[in-house]
Amino acid sequence: MIYQIKNDELQVEINSLGAELWSIRDRAGKEYLWQGEESTWKNRATNLFPFCGRMTGGVYTYQGQSYSMEIHGFAKGMEFAAVEQKPDGLTLAIEDNSKTYAAYPFRFRFLVRYELSGQTIKYSYIVENKDEKTMYFAVGGHPGFQVPVEKGLSFEDYEVRFAKAEVNQILLSPEYFMTKEKVICPAVKNGRMALRHDLFDKDALILSEMGQEIFIQSEKATAKIRVAFPDMTYLAVWHRPHTEAGFVCIEPWSSLPAEQGVVEDLEKKADLIALAADKVYENHWEIEIIS
């Protein structure tokens, strides 16, 4: 089901499948969100839970038992139920079931909340631990934005601008898993990442210590997109490798994918969120359309 929320500045659609942001239009009707394409990336703005990225061999362990897990977790493929709806806001939720428990042995409730304020879409990820034990998880966003934002410009006319002049990049292995190697990101010069399609031919650029805010903008255009993620530690910037797709994904993550060659033990993976029994975790971030 496609839900719609709106205010005087924005009209936003959300798909109940995955609680996925589906459309962002300004008052003039301009679309800012990638609209999906089978040949490049069919999704638009997936929500990542209970993990971000890949697990080695598609598996992880917990208390000596192995579990299978798809890339970016299972929430993106689940049908969410609306638990609160108003003209300018929507909250959707999933709960554990027998299928999730077979892949992820925890009792939980995961909510995604959208609220509009002026030209800003405010996200909230809310995780409720319904179990009698500590649960381990990650959350993350994966919105794709139209680039170019304005007609008549090219992908290469745009840049991602950071709050810091230099940002760190954690290098990927050839199999797209994490390594322990961290470098100053060569694609970011004086706080600017000039976009070009071959920048992503080795998959995502995974960044840390980058500041908690970015802008997608062009010196040739007035409209720009701001993404702020104060509660996230990492940021992936991605589009489909070896394509000239007209989008870029800005992915705020709480935690990293698996290390190359390591089948991760949830209780030992240091960057996962550990939520005690009966406790609630919240993570807030936002997208602002500046037109």
| Count of the separate structural domains | 1
Described by the principal axes of the CA atoms, the overall outline is globular
What is the CATH architecture descriptor? Distorted Sandwich
Series of H and E elements? EEEEEEEEHEEEEEEEEEEEEEEEE
* β-sheet strand percentage: over 45%
Secondary-structure content class: mainly beta
Question: What gap, in angstroms, lies between the N and C termini?
Answer: 29 Å
Provide mean pLDDT, rounded: 97
Low-confidence stretches: none
Number of strands: 24
What is the C-alpha radius of gyration, as a whole number of Å? 18 Å
Sketch the major β-sheet: 10 strands, antiparallel
Descriptive overview:
With 291 residues, the chain is mostly beta strands. It has one domain: Beta-galactosidase, Chain A, domain 5. It is built from 1 helix and 24 strands. It has one helix at 98-103, and strands at 2-6, 10-15, 20-26, 45-48, 59-62, 65-68, 81-86, 89-95, 108-117, 120-129, 135-137, 140-146, 159-162, 168-172, 178-184, 188-189, 192-194, 205-208, 213-217, 224-228, 234-238, 247-253, 273-275, 280-290. The strands form 5 sheets. It has a 10-stranded antiparallel sheet, with no helix packed on it. A 7-stranded antiparallel sheet has the order 4-12-22-21-18-14-15, with no helix packed on it. A hairpin with a 2-residue loop joins β16 and β17. The two termini are 29 Å apart. The mean pLDDT is 97.
